[in-house]
Automatic annotation (TrEMBL):
UniProt entry tagged with the keyword Transmembrane: no
PANTHER family for this protein: GLUCONEOGENESIS FACTOR-RELATED, UNCHARACTERIZED PROTEIN YVCK-RELATED
Official protein name in the record: Putative gluconeogenesis factor
Record's keyword terms, sorted: Cytoplasm
Transmembrane segments: none
Annotated organism of origin: Streptococcus loxodontisalivarius
Function summary: Required for morphogenesis under gluconeogenic growth conditions.
Localisation per UniProt entry: Cytoplasm
Pfam entry (one): CofD
InterPro entries: CofD, CofD-like_dom_sf, Gluconeogen_factor
Family under the similarity heading: Belongs to the gluconeogenesis factor family.
Amino acid sequence: MRKPKITVIGGGTGIPVILKSLRREDVAITAVVTVADDGGSSGELRSAMQLTPPGDLRNVLVAMSDMPKLYEQVFQYRFQEGDGALAGHPLGNLIIAGMAEMQGSTYNAMQLLTKFFHVTGKIYPASESPLTLHAVFQDGHEVVGESSIAGYEGMIDHVYVTNTYNDDKPKASRKVVDAILESDMIVLGPGSLFTSILPNLVIPEIKQALLETKAEVAYVCNIMTQHGETEHFSDADHVAVLNRHLGQDVIDTVLVNIDQVPQEYMENNKFDEYLVQVDHDFEGLRRECKRVISSNFLRLEKGGAFHHGDLVVEELMNLVRSKRP
């Protein structure tokens, strides 16, 4: 039998956790990575070179590669304050940017780098053009730019993307639509709902492919609410926002962590983006999706509350095996 095909869609620090564990399974992996980041090193390089931001692609590349630990440390090294124009830039971002200039696009650069670093699977930027994220709040105010969204006080109603440097309609990268349509499973997240996951899904071609695919669509729900994005959200609220942006109930399965983050841990660590643990609304979840998998997926590390990749992937693999003939 052929390997199950699993496509993971998202960005930030969330999906690398899943991809790192998934690459140890006998599956064909495709990662579709957001290109709407306009902050930090990625934002500077994107603005200077008009390329798709490299930061999320860098983290995915490391997660899916068998590169030795030393190579990873070199690739992830971030120049220190006081290093002039290089300050704050991870070396890997500069390598991806340089390769993009050599190869004519970030898409081409990533295809070469996946071979260079012996990546298990395929990595595609969601679009071959940098995108600008727009957030429309419930009071009608609109914020332009992913890095600016958390700074506005209010509840987000919806988001959409535009091409950053021209007026063309945003398009999916080549092969992304085919990957979605040919998958046995689509995994959304984990990651920031409005700034890591949805910027991919509101690209018209990707949205349409998700509506048409026969793949199982699984969403790994965030453990913590996020400042400026999902304050006071339950797990059902997260899924409702995804389904609303897609235009119908697309999410088949939701994975929910039920392990409690210790209060002492939260008090002793500064969660710069986090607020509180996501509330559970299992009745609401049953209205929004077909299946809920609730288990202990929590991993406490470096002052943060993350998903335990191996435990999440174990459930995903059980699900994909049960769906195959």
